[in-house]
Design goal:
Blueprint (H helix, E strand, L loop, with lengths): L3 E2 L7 E6 L5 E6 L5 E6 L5 E6 L3 E6 L4 E2 L4 E2 L7
Antiparallel strand pairs: 1-2, 2-3, 4-5, 5-6, 6-7, 6-8
Length: 79
């Protein structure tokens, strides 16, 4: 069962909502452009996000902050 909803958005903020109550539980800020993708680790308390700022961030949900190990996307190619 899914307990939380965590959309990304153009306002650069990842908002985590409790689905049972509809209340905002946490707001994560750190991207400098729109957030385009969000996924939660099934095994660890981490959320990964990617944005138009070409960054992939690893959020530690236990401590509600960005992990010190950010990943920068340099270039991608369809080939």
């Amino acid at each position: 069962m899914i307990d939380y909803f965590h959309p990304g958005s153009a306002d650069r903020i990842i908002k985590i909502f409790d689905l049972a109550t509809g209340t905002l539980k946490l707001s994560l800020t750190g991207h400098v452009s729109a957030v385009r993708g969000v996924v939660v680790s099934p095994r660890h308390p981490f959320l990964f996000s990617c944005g138009e700022d070409k960054q992939v961030k690893c959020w530690d949900l236990e401590y509600n902050k960005v992990s010190k190990y950010d990943i920068r996307v340099i270039e991608s190619s369809p080939d």
